[in-house]
Amino acid sequence: MGNFVSNSQNNNQHESRDDVSLRSKESQYRGKLWECMKAHSDYYQPIIAAVESAKKAVRKEAQAVMAPSSVGRDVMEWRKDPKVREEVDKYYDFMERGACKESWIALAQCWYAADCAKEDKNKLMFMLCECVEAHSDYYHPVLEAASKVAEEQLFKELEAFVLTSSDQPKVGEDELTERILEFMNGGDCKESFTPWLDIIIEEAEAEAAASS
């Protein structure tokens, strides 16, 4: 949790308006593409299933990051290490400064209440996850903390979809990408897919330029 807090604070301090604009555009184009794919689910069902599986992986990992119990373990170390207290304070501040403040506080209060049932905790966690995903422009550090697991899950799902009986056990990442692009461009959502892909490429180029 400490690394997440430090990284999120640094990212938010140095994040440019262009970064926020790109992420906002990506979210808009992704939403339009998703609506189109669901409207033509007979063709896009394999991709939809792969994305849904990846989203479940993201939510599971995000829950592990956001669970008050993980923060609570750090709280118990306050007296041992003042730096831990600072990190916990930053984490609470980050969660409460966003649009999901009420959902986060409700979950935290329930989590430590002796009379809070497991079903209530699960319901509040679900509500917090829904809120965080709806406000991903702000809470993206929470979601990015789970992105690696989701990417691995998505890759496995898509690889299984594009493999044929004549393939070797695995195909290279470049070939996998080419097959997916061919599939996406062959459906009725090509006009929605192209601008979304352009934004993804622009984001990748911007990240590469920032890290160089």
TrEMBL record:
Domain spans labelled GCK: 13-62, 85-158
SMART domains: GCK
Spans traversing the lipid bilayer: none
PANTHER family: F7A19.14 PROTEIN-RELATED, GCK DOMAIN-CONTAINING PROTEIN
UniProt biased composition (Basic and acidic residues): 14-24
Polar residues bias (residue ranges): 1-13
Annotated segments matching region Disordered: 1-24
Name of this protein: GCK domain-containing protein
A Pfam family of this chain: GCK
InterPro entries, per the entry: GCK_dom (IPR012891)
